[in-house]
Design a protein that fits this description.
CATH class: Alpha Beta
CATH architecture: 3-Layer(aba) Sandwich
Number of helices: 8
Largest sheet: 9 strands, mixed
Structural class: alpha/beta
Number of domains: 1
Shape: globular
Helix content: 25-40%
CATH superfamily: Ribokinase
Strand order of the largest sheet: 5-4-1-8-9-10-11-12-13
Strand content: 25-35%
Radius of gyration: 18 Å
Order of helices and strands: EEEHEHEEEEHEHHEHEEEHH
CATH topology: UDP-N-acetylmuramoyl-L-alanine:D-glutamate ligase
Number of strands: 13
Length: 285
Amino acid sequence: MVLICVGDLVEDIVVWLDGPMATGTDTPARIERRRGGSAANVAAFAVAAGGAARFVGAIGDDDTGRRVADDLAAAGVDVRVQRQGRTGSIVVIVEPGGERSFLTDRGACNSLTAAPDAWLDAMTWLHVPMYSLAGGPLAAECELLIAAARQRGASISVDCSSTAVLTSYGVERFVELLRTVPPDVVFANDGEARLVEIDVNGPPWLGRTVIKRGPASVLLYEAGKRQPIEIDVPPVAIVHDSTGAGDAFAAGYIVATQRGASPQGAATAGIALAQRVLCNPGASL
């Protein structure tokens, strides 16, 4: 069983602020450079959870691209990339308490085209973040990969990723995209779910919607059912950095589902993996 994650592999420049940002002057901070990208994170976390994962995407033909690709491969991920242009970078600003904001330059990420059929060998699950569907050649390629996954009988998940990306793309357009190729699972946080209205009032043709709400319970909505299943989230004493927690949740959920877990069991596995990320800097365990 192989999970294929298609999308971004970038360099994360993670900035941990010691206090509030002082506009127009200096703010003490700790800065680290790490491998990032939502799809790459899910693949790496899936391997850490005991699954098999392949990353499919595009990076720059540069030292940064080679470094992040080598790092992802060292994490046990089967890395299949096209190389052109320059590798993307994301500045992640982490405030005291763990909340983070992103300054995003995706670089070559959007340039993936014509992924070889061999890159889909043994695929049993395809995971696509909304970042990958937002535009450019990558979006068109992802639609082809989703169709190929459906034809091969693989499960499909879509992560809503970002309210900013959803708003820019267009909420009605996104819902129509989901209608065209209904995924088996949609991951969203509370804000994304409210924006797209894919919870209790959402379209009945969706398979399962998994709504993450930070420290509040995770909600599982099944197609056509008005009442969600609630999964309690154990408290976390200290949150160092929430970067990548949603990706870890998706990875834990997918790997557990592939092993035969119930939706409740899969959500519990996702919560446990995400909470490990909260205790570490950046998208790391």
